[in-house]
Please model this.
Amino acid sequence: MEINRIIIGVLLMFLLPYVAQAQEIKTDSICGDIEIATRQADSLRDTVSDTEVSNECAMHEKRMSEVWKRRAKYRNISYGVQTLKSDRADMKSDMAFGLSIGRTYYLHKKPIAGIMKFGVDWSHFDVNFAKYPDFPTSESASASPDIELANLGIMQIEAGMGVGPSLTVNPVGQLKLCLYFHVTPSYSLMMQNHELYHHYATFFNAGFSVSYKIISIGIENRWCGATSYDGVAMRRLDDIYDENGNFHDPFENFGVKMKTNTLRFYIGFRF
Model:
């Protein structure tokens, strides 16, 4: 019996280091597997996070493009109430229409506070037409009773280009609010049957608009200070030549000062 115990003890002494080493190898293997799994999980989380950030950036860029880049051009069609003050009479229009075509050039790439941009508007085409009821002309500028002209009232038209600052705010989605002020150098022309007036005129436009995607609505005040118009009137045509055969100009030139003011209500399209 003693010999068997001695033999078993010797065997255990030899086997114990191998058992401990095997246990250590097994523990290291488990720890290694856990570490690999942890690294894989971290890598997956980083990949998902990077994907989410990339998607958010792509959505932000798309929104910025739709709000600020794709909607910079505008076309506004307006109906107006126009008044005209002159040396001879004050008038209110029967009707007035306008058309403005232009573009906004923003002065900075990123919106201030994420919602606001300053810009410069250039209306490369701004035309306005108004019609007034007729009023009696002066005696010196009256036409010959022998000349029959259709009574078309008084028609006034201006064409010019405007430029000025603007402030655009994008509070939510694709809704935009815009304030602007334009200086619009124009050529102004007015016709009243046998009389014609024309001159350069500087108009000023101040307005506010609300737009959502392609559609916008707005209100604008348009005015011009006292402008000296050059007038031309057609006199009697039956006395162009006198008894001696001398020619007399049938047109009479004169001057008149006028002030124009228009309140415009418009619908616009932004591209």
Q: What stands out?
A: The chain has a mean pLDDT of 80. The chain has two domains: 1-69, 73-270. Helices lie at 2-69. Residues 2-69 form the longest helix (68 residues).
